[in-house]
Amino acid sequence: xxxxxxxxxxxxxxKTAKELSGRAEDxxxxxxxxNKISAEERQIDKIMADLGKIVYQRYKEEVPxxxxxxELCEQIDQRMEQIEQLRTDIKDLKIRTRRICPSCGxxxxxxxxxxxxxxxxxxxxxxxEDAGDTIxxxxxxxxxxxxxxxxxxxxxxxEAETEAADIAExxxxxxxxxxxxxxxxxxxxxxxxxxxxxxxxxxxxxx
Length: 207
Description:
By secondary structure, the protein is mostly helical. It contains 5 helices and 2 strands. Helix content is 77%, strand content 3%. Mean pLDDT is 76; it is low at 131-135.
């Protein structure tokens, strides 16, 4: 009984395995044939495209073609004109959003202060109009020049403040003590002058 059961089970499993194996082979063969069909279809599409190019070339050379072919060729012309217009729009967009580095000639962002390729300064149009010329040098050189100008301005301001302080000291009004000393010196000079006059008169009298 048990032998019959296991014998039947083995036969069933073997039959099922053969069926699955056969199906797998069928699936593989079907896919292989489909791949071949796809390859042939691609070749046909390529040949048809080449044939269409030949017809279009004849149309461009003004060789007579039938009305259907002529209509298709005209559609191709219209789409090619659209493509050219789109390319022009792309160029205009680049002009609005990008500009050329004056040093290396490569394209940079419109608002970029320095070229990311060579490091040269890239002034905007407004800066060029205000400055009247183009900024030369790399970013480091421009920064160094800017620091030098700032140092020169600070030195000029310090010198001006020093001169103003000196002028203020020279024009400062004398204090009360200084004014008293000046009065005393003036009185002493007057007395000395009077004494000199008296001595001169006495000498003349004696003569």
